[in-house]
Amino acid sequence: MQKNSFELSPMALSTRSETEQVIFEEILGARKVVLNRSTKLNVLSYKMLGKISEKLRTYENDPMVKLVVLKANGKVFCVGGDLVSASKFVAYGHWSFGTSYYRKEFCLDYLLATYKKPMVAILDGSVMGGGVGISIHSTFRIVTENTIFAMPEASIGLFPDVGASYFLSRLPGSFGEYIGLTGARLDGAEMVAMGLATHFVPSQNIQAMEKALEKMVASSDATSVTTMSMIINKFAQEVKVKPESVITRLDMINQCFSRKSCEEILYSLEHLAIQVQEKWIHNAIRSMRFASPLCLKIFLRIIRQGRSQNIEQCLDTEYIAISHILRRTVSNDFYEGSRAILIEKDKKPQWVPSKLEEVSDEMVAKCFLRSFTEDDDWFPLRLPLRYDKAKAMTSKL
């Protein structure tokens, strides 16, 4: 297999059927990027990443473009990257094939994090992993009653990436640790409460909101973010989290997930479960026990480093760790997780090491070394030059 076969895998974009994996629409001063792979839950293929990046750069430099809308066809926004294809390419070729995908994905995430045109992401369905990466930096992040948010990568032998060490570390207290270590799901109301979303708009109002935004940019030469916000507010609703929501348990979450190590976090949860009989505690314990021990420890390190890093630094750190996971520097967990969860689907991954206590600090440290050789055929992450790198220092959350 030639190395460029990963990049040249056929993904036709010639029609407006679902074989066209992403659709681009131009409506006067508005541009729409529509994920169109609904039968695959809109997972992001390598070709999609390239096409979206190319169009976004064109829109950013076009003075006629006032607004970019990111949305998806089907009942799901995007459940992440195409991990099945990535794992198969690596299995049948060379591990560095997989890093090609992550370089492309992280460059798109960085472009979006530093984008200078107003963006509206419409998350009317599940948004996970890579789907979060392409939407979290939008000026407006619209959720509905259908929205489900999660970062469940540790359950398949990875860790929350796509800049998660940046945006999850900006959440209140240790809530980011909770989300990344347990893969817990949030609904639209909870996303708004935590700052992961800006507006809650009922699904039945989404189309009318889009039309109103299109009309606004068509009638105004100078379209301000404030005006866009006023338009969205006309369709938005104030929404409260449910009484049993984990959002109302922040004190307990901080108490457990602020601990120094994964072992201490799990012990704290188990101790809390004896005192408090609540479902979220037992779910958190079960999820951490199910996930890759190595990947849990990698994530805990990167989210805590990420609090003092900008988005560029976070993506670079994540890329190094991802490269080591693909390389099997310490463990085969990514391939085992892909087999058990995504391919054979027996849901019985055999992690090695199998317990948190067996994952040494030295093992984790190896996943952050730039110890690649020419034989590895590995390339560093080269993020695109942007108009103002300082903008990457400021969180949009």
From TrEMBL:
Q: What class of enzyme is it?
A: hydrolase
SUPFAM superfamilies hit by this protein: ClpP/crotonase
- Name of this chain's protein: 3-hydroxyisobutyryl-CoA hydrolase
Every copy of the Enoyl-CoA hydratase/isomerase domain together lies at 31-368
A GO MF label: 3-hydroxyisobutyryl-CoA hydrolase activity
Function (record text): Hydrolyzes 3-hydroxyisobutyryl-CoA (HIBYL-CoA), a saline catabolite. Has high activity toward isobutyryl-CoA. Could be an isobutyryl-CoA dehydrogenase that functions in valine catabolism.
Q: Cite the annotated pathway.
A: Amino-acid degradation; L-valine degradation
Which processes are annotated in GO (biological process)? L-valine catabolic process
Q: Which reaction does it catalyse?
A: 3-hydroxy-2-methylpropanoyl-CoA + H2O = 3-hydroxy-2-methylpropanoate + CoA + H(+)
